Amino acid sequence: MIKNYLKIALRVLLKQRLYTSLNIGGLAIGLTTSLLVLLWVKDEMSFNKFHPNYDRMVKVMLNIATESQTTQTYELTAPPVAEAMKREIPGVVDATCSWQNKAVFTYGEKTNEETGLMADRTFLKIFNFPVLKGNAETALSKPNVILITQKFAEKYFGQTDPVGKVIRIGNAEHCYIEGVLENVPSNSSLQFDFIRSMPDSMSTASWVEVKAHVFALLEPGVNMKKLRDQMKPITKRHMPEFVTGWSYFPYSLNDWHLRSHFENGVYTGGGRISYVRLFVVVAIFVLIISAINFTNLSIARATGRSKEVGIRKAIGAKKSALVAQFLGESFILTFLAGLISIGLIYAILPFFNDFLDKKITINWLDPSYSVSLLGVLLLTSLLAGFYPSFVLSAFKPVLVLKGAGLGNSAGPAWQRKALIIVQFTITSILMVGTGVVYQQIEFIKNRNPGYDQHDLVRIEARELSQVNRYRQARTTLSEVPGVEAFSSASATFQGTFGRNYVEWMNGQQRERNMFAVISGDHNLTSTLKMKIHSGREFSPLLASDSAGVIINQEAARRMNLAEPVGKQIQVNGMEMTITGVVENFHIASVHQMIEPTVILFRPFQTRFFFARINKNGRAATLEQLKEKYESLLPGAIFSYQFVDQEYERMYQSEIQVGTLANWFSAVAIIISCLGLFGLASFSAERRTKEIGIRKVSGASVAEIFVLMNKDFVRLVLLSLLLAAYPAWYMMNLWLEKFAYHTRINEWIFVLCGLGTIIIAIVTVSYQSIKAALADPVKSLRHE
Fold it and tell me: What is the distance between the alpha carbons of residues 763 and 685, in angstroms, rounded to a whole number?
C-alpha cells in the first residue's frame, strides 16, 4: 500500500510541474532562511559554553548610586575584589582578575602591535583555554612571563618551538615565553593573542581604581541572590569612608554576551538577546509564510483531485488512509525542499560567515544538528500538509462524482483568501520592520556625536605623552603639512575613558557623583570642533587653567548649575574652577545616555593624539606623520584609526541586523509572490470559460485585467490594514532599547503599502494579461 501511495504521489507531482515547482521552491527558500537564522542563533547562544564550568562562573559587576542620581552599572571593577572574594565568601572556589593590554612585540626583524590580556596566576584555573605547550599549573605565576596563542607563535616563530624564548615588548621590556595556547574560539567573549603575567601587587591595589575584569568560579548549587548579599559587606569593609553608594554584584557568565543592558542598576532585558529573539520570530514568520504558501496551493488544486478522492472513497478508502496519503505527499515535497535547502545553505554559508564575521559550521555528527533539521522538516510538513489533507479527504463522493466537488463551493475560496491575508500580513510586518530598522541605522550613523569625526585621525601616543617627550612630539607632529589641527586626550571618544568623583555644592548641601573624566590639552575642544556653549576653552597662556575644567551640558544639568562658569567643584579631591561649558557629546555608544563629563587640562596624562587632516593629500600626510612618529619613537608602530570609520564599526551589529532584515523581507516577499502567482494561475485556469464569455460579450482586455486583479488587491489592502498596528507596536518595543532613537514615520507604512500592492499586481499581471489576451473560442472549448 505504501508503494502504491508513493507511485500516486510521484505521478501527481510530476503531472502538476508548475505547482510542484512553486511548492518546493517556496519551501526550499523558507527552510534555507529559517535554518540559517537558527544556525546564527545557535552560535550566539553558544558563547562561553566551551568552558566546562560555565554555569558556575560569574563576572563581578559594579553599581554606583547616589541619593540624587540613578544607579550606573560598570563592567570594570577594582583588582583586589578577586582576592577578597576568595578569602571572605564561602562558596567561591577561585577568582581572577584581568584587563586588556595592547603592546608592540619585536622578535628578530618582525615587529607588530598585538592585543591581549594582563592576568593573574589563577586565570587558567577558571577559564578553559588549553595549553598546548608548557605547564598550565604553573603558568603566569612568575613576573615578566607570557603565554601566546598558536596564531601568535606562527606569526613570529613559524614552525620553531617558541617556549623558552624571550620576546621584546615596546622599547625595553622583555618577556619569557612559557607556553602556547590553543587559538581562542570565535564564540568566546574574551578575545586575545597573548596573556601576560600580572604583578602580585594587584591584590593590594586601590579599591577605588576600577580597571579590571574580575571573574569567580563558584561551588555547585551556590544561590546567586545569597552570593549578592554576601558581597555587600566586602564593599563596606574595604572601601574608604568617603566612598558611598558602591556595590559589587555577581552576573552569570552565561548572560554576559547576550544580556548586557542595565538601567538604574538592574538588567532590563536588552543586549544581543533582543536580536536573537527578533530573528527567531523572523525565522518562524518565514516558515509560516512558506507553509501557508504550500497550504494555499494545495487547497487551490483540490478540485483537480476531487474525482480521484471520490472514486477512492466510493470503493472503500477510509478518511485516515487518505489523510496519511496526502500527508505523505506533503512530506515528500518537504523532504525534497529540505535537500535543496541543505545545498543552498552550504553554498551561502561562506558568504554568511564573512558578512557576520562568524565561523559557523555544520557538524552532522552532532545530534543537535540532525535532530533539529528533522524536527524543522517534520514541523514544516505537518504545518503545510495537515489542513490540505483534511480538506481533500473530506470530499463527499456522491457530490464529487456528480461534478459538484468541494472545489466549487465557497468553503475553500474563503479559506484561501484568509490564508493569503495572513501571509501578506506577516510579509507587510516584515517590510515595515525592515523600513524602521533602516531608519534607525541611518539615525545612528547620521546622529551628531557632539564633535566632528570626519577627517579626524586618532594616534596611539604611547611614551610620547610623557613629560619629557610630549612638547617635542606635539610640535613635530602638528607641523606636518596637511595637519590642520592637533591635540591630545586620555579618551578615544568611542568607549575608552576614565571616571572619577566630582563634588559640588547644591545649595547648602555638598553632593558627589561619578562623572566621566578626560585629560586633554588646550586644543582639544577646537581640534574636535566641539561647540562652546558658554565660557571659553583652555589657554596655553594662562597657568591658572591647570586648575580649570571644561564640562558638558549634561554635567551642568546633573549639578543643577544654571550658570556654571566660574563655579568651584572638586575632581578627585582637587579644587577646580569651571572655565567653560561645551555642548553635549558622546564618548560611548548612542545605546547609552550621554555621560556627564569633565575635561581637565592635563596634557601629560593623555594616551592619544588627535590630528585633523586635510582631505586632499591624505595618504601623503599620513605617511609623513608615520615618518615623524617613528623618528620620535624608534621601534614603535605608528598605530592610527580614522574616527569616523571606528564610529561605524561600533554599530556593525546594527548594520548587520539591517542588512539581514532586508534579506528576510525580500525572502518573505518572494515566497508570498510564488504563492500568489500560483493562485493567479489557478484562478485564470478556473475562470477560463467565464473570461471567454465576457470577451464574446464585448469585455475589453483592460476590463478583464481589472477583473482578475481586483480580488487579490483587496486582500493585500486588508493585509496592510491588519499589519499596521502589530508592526508599529513591535518596532516601537525594539526602538526603546536605544537610548536615542528615531520615531516611526507614517511614510514607512505608505511606502510599504504601495510596494506590496505593486508587487502583488506585477505578480498576478502575467496570468491576468495571458487570460485577457486568450482566444475566446479556445476558452469556450476549455474543459
Answer: 16
Cα separations in angstroms, 495 against 114, 177, 282, 303, 527: 19, 32, 32, 65, 19
* 584 and 554 Cβ atoms separated by less than 8 Å: yes
Alpha carbon distance 374, 379 (integer Å): 8
Per-residue CA distances from 712 to 431, 716, 719, 723 (Å)? 19, 6, 11, 16
Phi/psi of residue 532, nearest 5 degrees: -75, 120
What does the chain come to in residues? Answer: 783
Cα pseudo-dihedral 381, 383, 386, 389, rounded to 10: -70
SS3 readout for 97-164:
EEEEEEEEEEECCEEEEEEEEEECCCHHHHCCCCEEEECCCCCCCCCCEEEEEHHHHHHHHCCCCCCC
Cα gap 564→558, rounded to integer Å: 11
DSSP H stretches of helix in 196-305: 224-238, 253-256, 273-300
Q: Is pLDDT above 50 for 335?
A: yes
- Cell numbers for 395: 470530499
At 700-741, the pLDDT tens digits run: 777 777 777 787 888 888 888 999 999 999 888 878 777 778
Whole-number Å distance between alpha carbons of 653 and 754 = 29
Q: Which amino acid is at 422?
A: V
The continuous run of DSSP H or E covering 517 comes out as: strand 509-520
Q: Which helix (H) or strand (E) holds 261?
A: strand 261-263
Name the grid cell of 730.
Answer: 513591535
What is the pLDDT confidence band of residue 488, given thresholds at 50, 70 and 90? very high
Please, which pLDDT band fits residue 665 given cuts at 50, 70 and 90?
Answer: confident
Count Cβ neighbours within 10 Å for each residue of 16-43 and write b for 16 or more, e otherwise: beebbebbbbbbbbbbbbbbbbbbbbeb
Are 240 and 59 in contact by the 8 Å Cβ rule? The answer is no
Residues 6 or more apart whose Cβ sits within 8 Å of residue 91: 218, 219, 222, 227, 230
pLDDT over 70, % of the chain:
86
Give the angle 773-774-780 at the CA atoms, nearest 5°: 140
Contact 483, 612 (CB under 8 A): yes
pLDDT classification of 125: cutoffs 50, 70, 90: very high
Count CB-CB contacts under 10 A for residue 10.
12
Nearest CA to 753 out of 442, 419, 427, 441 is that of 427
Distance between CA 283 and CA 417 in Å, rounded? Answer: 23
pLDDT grade, residue 435 (50/70/90)? Answer: confident
Phi and psi, residue 540, nearest 5°: -70, -10
8-state DSSP, 448: -
> What is d(CA 598, CA 489) in angstroms, rounded to the nearest whole number?
12
* Residue 732: all three cell numbers together: 516601537
C-alpha cell at 365: 555528527
CA distance 533 to 739: 23
Beta-strand relationship, 213-218 and 166-169:
unpaired
Distance CA 290, CA 285 (A): 9
Query: Which triple of cell numbers denotes residue 51?
Result: 568552558
List % helix, strand, coil for the chain (3-state, nearest 5). Answer: 50, 20, 30
Q: Rounded to whole angstroms, how far apart are CA atoms 281 and 267?
A: 22
Indicate the SS3 state at residue 208: coil
3-state secondary structure of 170: coil
Amino acid sitting at position 607: R
* 408: pLDDT strictly greater than 50: no
Enter the DSSP assignment of 462: G
- Helices (H), ranges, 614-700: 618-632, 643-650, 652-686, 688-696
Q: What's the CA gap between 648 and 654, in Å, rounded? A: 10
CB crowding 71-92: b at 16 or more within 10 Å, else e: ebbebbbbbbbbbbbbeebebb
